Amino acid sequence: MSNTKKAYIAGGCFWGMEDLFRTRPGIVDTEVGYQGGQNENPTYRNHPGHAEGLELTYDPSKTSFKEILDFFFRMHNPTTVDQQGNDMGSSYRSAIFYQNEEEKAEAQEMIDLVNASRKWPSKVVTTLEPFAPFWVAEEYHQDYLVKNPNGYTCHFLRFEDSFIEG
């Protein structure tokens, strides 16, 4: 996999996000972890300010950053501050951790498209945050819903239709 890229997003509990993204075309690997917080080597019990996030390794010949973001905005609620379903707190914020100005511009373009669609009843509150170290979560969190098929998730595909025009 010499020609892969990585994308970093957060949108609530990382279990559900990982479970939906793992089977997407072009996604090569997923890791759940913590990003954007105040301490090094965060853990589930100690991750102040970190979002529960997802590191996506993808093949850009099969999917794009924009397509990843399109799915992201359809599988979680980007209009709630620090909340997804019953999960509340900054760990569950909606965020895109951009790695360069091109990703930041594409993310802002997607937010504008989502807002313009009026599919969500409120405006997107997803934050655009500069890339911060991604700390891989404990092993028992990796592939959690594969290991525990009846486990909790608040993620599901809310809209079939893409936000991307064309």
From TrEMBL:
Residues 6-154 form the Peptide methionine sulphoxide reductase MsrA domain. Its EC number is 1.8.4.11. Keywords: Oxidoreductase. The active site is at C13. It comes from the Bacteria. One of its GO terms (molecular function) is L-methionine:thioredoxin-disulfide S-oxidoreductase activity. It catalyses: [thioredoxin]-disulfide + L-methionine + H2O = L-methionine (S)-S-oxide + [thioredoxin]-dithiol; L-methionyl-[protein] + [thioredoxin]-disulfide + H2O = L-methionyl-(S)-S-oxide-[protein] + [thioredoxin]-dithiol. Pfam families: PMSR. The keyword Oxidoreductase applies. Belongs to the MsrA Met sulfoxide reductase family. Has an important function as a repair enzyme for proteins that have been inactivated by oxidation. Catalyzes the reversible oxidation-reduction of methionine sulfoxide in proteins to methionine. PANTHER family: PEPTIDE METHIONINE SULFOXIDE REDUCTASE (PTHR43774), PEPTIDE METHIONINE SULFOXIDE REDUCTASE MSRA 2 (PTHR43774:SF1). This is Peptide methionine sulfoxide reductase MsrA. It comes from Algoriphagus locisalis. The lineage of its organism: Bacteria, Pseudomonadati, Bacteroidota, Cytophagia, Cytophagales. The gene is msrA.
